[in-house]
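anyone else get weird line breaks when pasting these?? whatever heres mine. first is seq + tokens for prot A
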Amino acid sequence: MESWKEFSKKIEKDQTDLKADWYGRFFVWKISAPITYLLVRTPISANQVTVIQEIIGTIGAIMLAVPSIKIMLLGIFLIQFGFILDCVDGEVARYKGQSSVRGVFLDLIGHQIVIPFYIFFTSLGVFVRTGQIDALVVGFLGALFIIPTERLALLSVINSMIEKKGNRNYSIDVIGDDEIQVPDNNLTIQKRNGWFWAIKKKWSYPDSMNMLTLFVITEYFFPTIKLCSLDLSPTYIFLYFFSIPVIIGRFLSFHNIFKYNIVEKHFHYIIRKILSD
């Protein structure tokens, strides 16, 4: 087995990502790398690590629904540890040469489960502790709309057009090359810089997880916070602070897809790529 220094170079992440994600660079990687160093000596595969982290993250999310704040903190710990393993699986894959589309798919499936779970079960926990039904409703909507349904629907439409040919008007045989349009990159590719992206990133994973962590820790020390003459729990405040922008943002995304014909542009772009190959 090579030295720690040689091992670190083999699994080192892309430098651009490391500079952009301070949490991953200065905290998570410091923990994930030693775990990976131990796991690569075992027959455990990267995909098995992914499944383990998804199970741990799901259990942690469910624990947020219990009345005890100490159990909630344990749940937060498991969710955070699940994210660390989310980094470990990539490191194991790079080291063992197990990187694959299947692994990426499995990883994304886990995100679509764990993230909505920790939003919804947080709201369920607030409802159990306080009886505030609005928290449950807001949390449910936040968990529902955190799932990128417009992207999933877009891919499903394109899949039906190309593979199943569900709409003959959009088959490769019907659309001529002169009709195919290239999508405007400004509409399809978001620039990951600037103040807007910095704010938007706080509602993505793992920033949303870290935001929830801070609110749960705050509730441990301050069970209620006075806001506009109301005594509210920090996790109750989190649900509104997090979910309302998510709901509005998702509907704006639906609107933009219709307004700018994103589905057609993506489809035409894929067809052109197929024909050019």
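and prot B, same format (seq, then tokens)
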Amino acid sequence: MVFTGFSPFTERVAKGQSANAIIADMTHRLGAVQEVFIIAVSPPVRGLGNQGGFKLKVQDRSGNGVRAPVAASYQLIGAARLCTPNI
């Protein structure tokens, strides 16, 4: 297993090196290797990830107790589920 990073986007964009273009090129080139199974995948967004999800903290600034931030949290989760079909 090998993990590698991309060059900064600003350096790659002028050369037409989007993440998808790099992955397609790697898949094509590495497909010639017969002795192993190789798969190239897009790197996760730093801090979010493809498997790890993300963290969000809700802070109660009103001092009205725990019910308001819990309700706001569930409302936010519901809205996120509408935007992301895999949640």
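btw re prot B: Residues 56-87 form one domain. The longest helix spans residues 67-83.
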